[in-house]
Design the sequence.
């Protein structure tokens, strides 16, 4: 076994576009098993696959299926009611789900949209809704290309799956259309739009750059490079601070500087993305769960873990992390993907995936339709299949994006395991076909077994997580120690081998100085919440266009307590088997027992929101009380950040 801090890059060309250090395996090459497979089953059987009957935007006469549509079904002539991002958000997730699961219903719906794409192509390269070809701005009619940038990712996946040259031709033609637009017609500044929708193409102008790079690699057309430069100029023309206060804008835009690196060959471009992310998290992300305090937008003085994050931002952030891992070969981006998907994303949905909410917070003891101390007011946390316009269409890509982060082909034609979960890989490397069965209940345990079947020997890299305190790796009876440092282990493996990995992890306390020095509890990749008794109340029953009934749910903690955590008291770990969907309080495979004290005056405060965490050590009353904690992703109503008493023993987290 060899160790390296990162996956080594291939030999870099002197000019042109740099290849990635590693490339995520195409969707369909990794089959989710165990608890991960259950998340896909629930997603496919939940509200998402029925959005054609639930969503106003997904009707059969929307502008993506009927390009000539001139007004929405409710008579509203606004182009964003006829065709915009919602349909492409849904299609992106639906096609990714279809590739992973083979679901025939989703595949058939996606094919219907693809046929409409090809049929609507114009001689200038544009395709899709007429209403997006010319929207109003102070520059006169201009195209709104933002939804097409989402469509570009879908077409990239379609090309990978089919190698259909028509797909490449459609992508190339649309990007040529963009490159040929005159300056005053291509993504005008944000202050020249009459509707907020037109502003998004300015704010997220570089989202399609990785796909444009791909089209350049496949076609050699230098006009694609010119288009990338042009988009970079657009991105630089306005101050980013206000734009990136928006939670989803930041989740996408922090990677933009690094997207320049393949063309600039300047490592400083990548480092700017790293610094942008780390400085943002240092201020706004001092909390567990991998997210940051931006309940639509960040707000000065609102950094406490009672502030929330939009569901869309979770899957967008994982997509950005996966891209940055592919460029850099670094392990830290996989740590960050795991933290969001294991600890935050499950709580954004009901356990059966029949509803979602807009905002998820780490300290959030009640979910309802009332105002909270969030940037957005009104119904933000009640679970519903019918609300939260962008998120309800965009969540389908979340678990597929995590699957994309699990395995990658390295630049030298080897394989790397980046993020972990039960799954099976079937892929052809340059040296031959490889099949790997990953047997594990990770993240609820930290032992992983890789059973390997291959035509030829190959080098296999396995990530060492940032929280790892050592451990062992066993291959062909030979045991190796695992370094207690993030990076990668490299093994020479062959057909019939089994590689057993055991990462050592201890209970730790993560500290957040900016938020009154509060702490959270972690174990391996998991963060933990107080185990509240959840009370679910059916708030409304709605019927979709096919006659199916869907329940809106409010959830509250019964008799909630708000304790200080005693760091001097031992924390014990109790485990049980992983079965079904592990992300519920009752099925949680790990439970911690700790001790704490009541904190008088800490509880629910103004606007139906829990008070900020008090400074430590707080005033307490009464004797010690036992505390039960379960993984944060298992709790919908949650309390994961605490004031503390006792002698601290802080761990760390990237």
Sequence:
């Amino acid at each position: 076994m060899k160790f390296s801090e990162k996956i080594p890059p291939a030999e870099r060309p002197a000019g042109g576009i740099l290849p990635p250090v590693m490339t995520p395996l195409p969707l369909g090459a990794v089959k989710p098993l165990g608890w991960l497979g259950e998340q896909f089953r629930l997603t496919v059987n939940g509200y998402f696959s029925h959005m054609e009957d639930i969503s106003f935007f997904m009707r059969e006469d929307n502008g993506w299926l009927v390009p000539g549509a001139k007004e929405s079904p409710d008579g509203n002539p606004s182009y964003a009611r006829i065709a915009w991002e919602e349909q492409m958000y849904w299609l992106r997730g639906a096609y990714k789900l279809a590739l992973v699961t083979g679901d025939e219903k989703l595949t058939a719906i996606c094919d219907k949209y693809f046929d409409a794409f090809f049929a609507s192509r114009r001689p200038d390269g544009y395709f899709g809704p007429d209403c997006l070809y010319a929207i109003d701005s102070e520059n006169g009619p201009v195209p709104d290309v933002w939804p097409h940038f989402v469509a570009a990712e879908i077409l990239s996946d379609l090309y990978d799956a089919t190698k259909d040259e028509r797909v490449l031709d459609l992508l190339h033609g649309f990007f040529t259309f963009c490159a040929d637009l005159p300056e005053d017609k291509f993504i005008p500044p944000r202050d020249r739009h009459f509707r907020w929708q037109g502003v998004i193409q300015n704010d997220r102008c570089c989202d399609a750059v990785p796909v444009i790079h791909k089209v350049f690699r496949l076609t050699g057309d230098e006009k694609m490079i010119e288009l990338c430069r042009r988009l970079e100029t657009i991105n630089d023309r306005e101050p980013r601070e206000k734009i990136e206060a928006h939670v989803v804008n930041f989740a996408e835009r922090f990677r933009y500087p690094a997207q320049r690196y393949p063309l600039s060959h300047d490592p400083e471009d990548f480092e700017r993305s790293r610094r942008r992310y780390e400085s943002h998290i240092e201020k706004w992300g001092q909390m567990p769960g991998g997210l940051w305090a931006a309940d639509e937008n960040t707000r000065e003085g609102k950094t406490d873990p009672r502030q929330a994050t939009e569901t869309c931002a979770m899957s967008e952030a994982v997509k950005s992390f996966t891209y940055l891992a592919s460029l850099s070969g670094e392990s830290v981006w996989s740590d960050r993907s795991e933290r969001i998907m294991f600890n935050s994303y499950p709580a954004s949905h009901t356990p059966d995936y029949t509803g979602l909410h807009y905002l998820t917070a780490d300290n959030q003891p009640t979910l309802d339709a009332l105002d909270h101390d969030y940037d957005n007011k009104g119904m933000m946390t009640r679970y519903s299949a019918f609300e939260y316009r962008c998120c309800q269409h965009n969540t389908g890509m979340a678990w597929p994006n995590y699957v994309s982060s699990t395995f990658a082909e390295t630049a030298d034609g080897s394989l790397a395991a980046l993020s972990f979960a039960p799954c099976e890989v079937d892929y052809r490397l340059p040296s031959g076909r490889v099949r790997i069965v990953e047997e594990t209940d990770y993240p609820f345990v930290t032992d992983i077994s890789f059973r390997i079947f291959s035509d030829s020997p190959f080098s296999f890299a396995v990530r060492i997580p940032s929280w790892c305190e050592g451990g062992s790796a066993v291959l062909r009876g030979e045991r190796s120690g695992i370094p207690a440092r993030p990076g990668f282990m490299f093994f020479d493996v062959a057909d019939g081998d089994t590689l057993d990995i055991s990462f050592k992890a201890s209970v730790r306390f993560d500290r957040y100085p900016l938020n009154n020095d509060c702490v959270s509890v972690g174990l391996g990749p998991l963060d933990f919440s107080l185990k509240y008794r959840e009370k679910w109340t059916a708030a409304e029953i709605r019927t979709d266009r096919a006659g199916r009934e869907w329940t809106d749910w409010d959830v509250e903690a019964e008799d909630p307590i708000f304790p200080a955590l005693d760091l001097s008291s031992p924390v014990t770990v109790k485990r049980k088997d992983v079965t079904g969907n592990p992300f519920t309080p009752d099925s949680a495979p790990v439970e911690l027992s700790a001790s704490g004290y009541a904190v008088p005056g800490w509880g629910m405060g103004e606007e139906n929101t829990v008070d900020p965490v008090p400074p430590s050590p707080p005033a307490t009353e009464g004797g010690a009380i036992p505390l039960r904690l379960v993984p944060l992703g298992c709790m919908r109503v949650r309390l994961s950040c605490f004031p503390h008493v006792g002698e601290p023993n802080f761990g760390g987290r990237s």
Notes: The CA atoms of residues 1 and 478 lie 10 Å apart.
